[in-house]
Queue: 2 jobs
Job 1
Amino acid sequence: MKILVCISKAPDTTAKISFTDSDTKFSETGVQFIINPYDEWYALVRGLELKEANGGTVTTISVGAADYDPIIRKALAIGADDAVRIDTQPTDAFQVASEIANYAKDKGYDMVLCGKETINYNGSQVGGMIAELMNLPYVSLAVKLEVNGGTATIERDMQGGTEVVEISGAFVLSASKGMAEQRIPNMRGIMQARTKPLTVVPASGSLAMTEIVSYELPPAKSACKMVDAENMDELISLLHNEAKVI
Amino acid sequence: MSVLVFADSNNGAIAKSAVEAIHYGSKIGETTVITYGNVDDSALASLGNYGASKVLINKSINEFDGQKLSKLIRAAAESAEVIVFAMDFSGKSLASRVAAGLNAGLVSGALGLPDTSNGFVVRKAVFSGKAFANCKINSDKKVIALMPNSIQVETNDASASVEEFNADLGSSAVTVKEFKAKGGGGVLLTEADVIVSAGRGLKGPENWGMIEELATEMGAATACSRPVADIGWRPHHEHVGQTGIAVRPNLYIAVGISGAIQHLAGVNGSKVMVVINTDAEAPFFKAADYGVVGDAFDVVPKFIEKLKAFKAQQ
C-alpha cells in the first residue's frame, strides 16, 4: 500500500498572532511552528496505522522552503518512511494542490491523505483540489478509514450525521478528529529520522489564483459585563434589551 | 455579474446555510441556483424570496455524490462569473473540487460581500478566528464559500423560475452505504442560533439535564468542551473547538468551561458569549460579553426559572 500524506506547517496553537509589512505578512518572530495538527494527529498517524497493519510505505509531501525541514523531520520521527519537499513558497492552496498533484499523479499512490484544514488559513481546500487535479474521488471530513483488500470504507461527517462510503481504487481524503490518536515520537524514531530520505524537488511552476492583500486583527473586545449570580433577571434583560439575542 | 449558487438539498429540503448563500449571491448579481434530488417545485420557486432568479435542479442525483455534483456544478457554472457555496459540510467537500476544475481561485469561509473597488477582495477569518485576511481572487471565475450565519437574510415576494438541468455526470467511484443520523433530533449544532455548551465544571454526565432543559427553553443546540467529549460524557459530535466543530451562533452560553485557547478558536465567531463559571479567573471571561461567577448548579436552574417567566410575559 502506497500512502502519501500532505504535511503543512502551522504556528503553534498558542502562538501570538501579529503582522508586519503594513499588515501584509504574518510575523514569525518568536513563533514556534508545528505540523498542522489535522495533518499530523489524524492523516499521518492513520496512514502509519494502515501501513503497520497492511504493509507498504508512507511518504509525506510538503510544498515550502527549507524552513519546512524541521517539521518534516518530526513527521519522519513519528514514523513516515520518507519525505518529499517541493521547493517553492506557495501563496495559496491552489498552488499547493497543483504542485502536489503534478508530483503525485504518475507515482501510483493508493491514497492521498490530508488534514481537513490548516489552523492558519482554515481553508479546507487542498484535498479537494488535489482530487480534482488528479481525477480521483474525494472524501472530506473523514472520521474513520478502514481498508480491506482494494476497498476502503470511510465514515465522514455530514449535515446531521455521518455517512459511510466505500471506494475501490485510489482516492483523496481529508481527515477530521476521530481518525486516530496523536503519537509522540520516541527517541529511536527521532534518531532514525535524521537519516531517512528527504527529497527536495523543484516546483513545477504552478500559479496561485488568490493572494492575501492584507490582514487585520479583531477589534479589542470590550470588557466582560459581570452579572451577580443572584440576579438572573438582569442577565435576561441584558440579553434581551442590550445584546438583542433573546 | 452572473452568479451561480449551489444549494444542498439534504432530505429534500434546502439547507439554512444554502439560503444564506443564495441571498449573498443575489447581492453580487443575477443569481441562478443549482440543486439536486427530490425537492418540491414550489419549494424551489420560493427560493426567489431570497433573491434567486432561476433554479436548476438535477433529479438524477439522489444522494450526496461529490464527483457527480462537482461535474454538475461545473456544467451549470459555464456562464457564471461567481460561484457561491455555503461553507458547511457539503461546501467543504465541493467548493475546492469545483474551483480546481474551473481553474478558479477560491476564498473559503467568506464573512462578507466582495469588495470590487480594487479587484475582487473577500474577507475571511484566519488563524482559527484570531485574525482576518482580505483575499483577492485573480482568476476570471471566482469561487466563494460563505461562512454560515455571517449575513442577515432578507426576503421578498419574488418567485424563481424552475428548470430541470442535466449534464454528463460520468460514473462515480464512491458508493454511499449508509447514513447514520445523530441521535437527539434537536437543533443541529451547525445551524443553531443559540448554543448552550458545558464542560468539566458539570462534574459528570448525569448533570446534563439542566443544560438540556436550558437548551430546550431557548430553542438551542447543546455542545461541550473537548475533555468532556474525550472522557465520553457527551458524544464527539457535540465537541466545539479547534479540533471539533467551529460554530458561529448569535448567542453562545458556556457553563463550567474555563475557555482554553483551543476552545475559543472554535467559538470566537459567536456574536454574543455568556460565561458561567465558579472561577472568576477563568480565561473565558476575557473573551465573554457577559459573565456570571457562580456555581452552575445554582445559576443555571435560576436562569431557567427567570427565562420561563420572561418567555411567559412575551
Job 2
Amino acid sequence: MELSRRTLIAGGFAAMLGGTVAGCSSSMDAGTTKKNASGNIALWCWPGGLGKSVLDDTIAHFPDQHIKYSEVGGDFKQKLLTTFNGGTSIPDITGIKGEDIASMLPQANRFVDLKTIGADSILGDYLDWKVKQATTLDGKVLGIPIDIGPTALFYREDVFTAGGLPGDPAKVAEQMKTWDDFLAAGVELKKSNPKAFIVADAADLYGTIVNQGTARYIDKDNKFIGDQDHIRKAWDTAVKAITLKVDGKTLGGSPDWNAGLDKGTVPTVTGAAWVALDIKAACKTSVGKWRVAPTPSGPANFGGSFLAVTKNAADPAAAFEVIKYMLSADNEAKAFADAQIFPATPAAYDKPQLKAADPFFGGQVPIEVFGPAAKNIPIAYEAPLDSAVATPFTDELKLVQAGKKSSDAAWSSAVQKAKQIGKRQGVQ
Amino acid sequence: MTLTATAPTRPASTAKPQRRRGILSYWRFYLALSPFYLLFVVFGLYPVASTILLAFQKWDGLGPRKMVGLQNFRFLIEDSTFWLSLWNTVVLFVMSTAPTLVIAMTLAVMLHSAVRFKGIYRIAYFIPNITSLVAAAIFFAAVFSTNFGLINAGLRSLGLPTEDWLRQPWGIKIAISTMIVWQWAGYNTIIYLAGLQAIPTEQYEAAKVDGAGPFRTFFSITLPQLRPVVLFTVIMSTIGGLQTFTEPQVMVGNNGGTGQSGMTVVMYFYNQAFFNNDYGYAGAIALSIFMLVLLFTAINWKLLGGRGRQ
C-alpha cells in the first residue's frame, strides 16, 4: 500500500476532527448526571474561603458523612467547569465565588435547587439581597451565602484633621453624605495638603457608584441599559473627581497605592470590609490612625461567595445539613474571627467576635459601620454578561483619567463597545 | 485509520528503499518513539483540533455546544478591541524583539572576545530568563510606578520631568517591552555565542591578513555565518513575542491598562474564554493568533532563510 505522507496526515487530521465532534457530542447530553458514591461528602472551596476552625468543627460534627475537604487553588471557577465537563470527581458541595455567581445561574441544571431540600426554613436568616444573587429568574436558589463584602469609607484621621476636615467618624458621616460632599471635601483637603488625593482612583470610584445602584448594565429582559442615566450619573461623578483634580490615579493594590496608604498620599479607601486586611498589611507607621465611616451616598457590596449542592451529590439532603450547620450565624461569626470572612447573617453582627474594638482603627468598632451597611445594600439584577459589558466603561474612563479623551467622546465609545459585546451574546 | 498511524510516516519516508519491508517491521522503533507521539496527540493535536472546531461554535463552558458557522469570525472583524489587541501585539513584538536581538548580538560578540570570567558573565546574562515571570513583572511594575518607582526617582535626581508610566498608553508599552528585553536578551546572547564559537577561526585570520577591520569582519564574516542562528532566534522570538501574556497581565491587569494599551491578543483571548465564558469566540481569536504566528514565521523565513541557502 503506497501511502503518501500528505494523505496520511490529512486522514489523521480528519479522524482527529471526527473524534472531537464525537467527544463533544457526548458532553452535550451531560444533562443525565451520574450520582457520586454515597457514604461521603466531597467539599470544594478555595484557600481562605472558609474559616479553618469552622471547617474542622463541621467535619468533626458530621462523623458519619466523612466530609472530604479539598482546597482548590488557582482559577477556581475554571477548575469547577472542567470537572463538570469531565463528569467524574464532581464535588457534592462546592463554593461559588461572588463574581462568578451571575454566570453560574444559567447552569442551574447542574445544581440542586436548595428550596426543594428545605432551604426555605433558613433563607430568612440571611440577607435578602445576597440570597437574591443566587436565585434564578424562575426562583431556584442555588447557593447559601458564605460571606458578603459591604463597603465603607476607610480614611486617615490624622490627614483629615490636618487638612481642616472632621476626624471623628460620626462627623465625617455627617459632612460627607454624598459623593458631591466627598469631592468638595477633597478640594478642601488638597488646598492645605497638595499631595493628598481624596479619591484614590476615579475608575474605582465609578465601579463603587455603579454597585450602589439598583440597576446595572443589562435588565431582566436581557436589554442593554448601560447607556441610561443611572450609569451616566456614576460616570459623571467619576469624571468630576478627575476635573476637580482630587483623583490620585492610584490603582488599588499597586506599589504606589500600598506606599501611599502609609505615607498619607492615599488618605481614603472606599472598599469592602475585607479591604481592611490589605490596608493593615500595607501600613506600618499609620497604625491606629485609620477610621471607618459609612460610604458616601450609601453602601455597596463587593464580592461574597456561596456554597452550593451539585446535582451529582449522592445525598443532597445530607449535603444541605452540612451547609446549614457550617453557615449558621454562630459559625459565620467564628469564620469572621478566623479570617475576616464577613457574615451574611445579620444575627452574627451581635456576636462578640464582631463586636470587638479594633486598635488599628483607633479603638473604633468597625461593625457599627459595616452592620447597618450590610443590611441596606441595594438589590440590583446582575446579568451573566454584566461584567463583560462593564469593561469598556472602566477602560474608557481610564483614558479620560490619562487626559487622552474628553468625557463625552469616551462615553459614546464605551456605550458603543458595550453594545457590541452584548450583541455578540444576544443582548438587545 | 487512526491518528497514531501518522507517526510512522516521517521516519518511513526517509528510510532507504531497499530496507522497506512494510511499516510493521519497524515496530520496535515506533514503540520507542511512541511516548512522544502519544503525548503530542493527547496534549497537542487534540486541543488544537478542538480549538479549531470551537471557533465555529458557541459555548459557555458548561452547557451544550452550538454550531454557529462563521458568526464568531464576523464578530471578530467588527470588534475594534480585537484589532487594537492585534496592533498592540505587533507593536510590542517589534518594540521588544528588535532591541533584544541587537543587544544580544552585541553582548555575544563582546563575550566571545572576552578573556576572563566568561562563565560568570554567561550565567549572569542567562539568569533573567529563568526568573519567574510573575515575580519579574511585579518587580518591573514597582520600578515603573509613578511615585515610588526607581525610574522616576532616577529622572527626578537628574532634574528631568517624571512620567506616569503605567497610566499612559505608551508608557505601558515601554514598560512591558523593557521587561521582555531584560528577560530574553541573555537567552539570545547564549544562542549567538554558541553560533559564534562554531565559526572557523581561519576565516577571521584570512580576513585579518587581507586587512579587514573589526566592523568589516563583523558584517562580512560573522553576520553571514550566523544567518541560520539569527533565523532561529528571530523565529523563536516571533513565536514567543506574539503570545505575550503574563507581562501585561501582571503589570497592568486583565483589561490591559489605560486605553487597553497592554491588551495583547492572547490576553484578549484569555479574557473572552475565562472571564466572559465565550469559549467559541475565544477559539476564533486563538485561531487568528495561530495564523498571525504562521504569517510572521513565513515572512521571517523568506527574508532571512531564503538568501542563506544560496
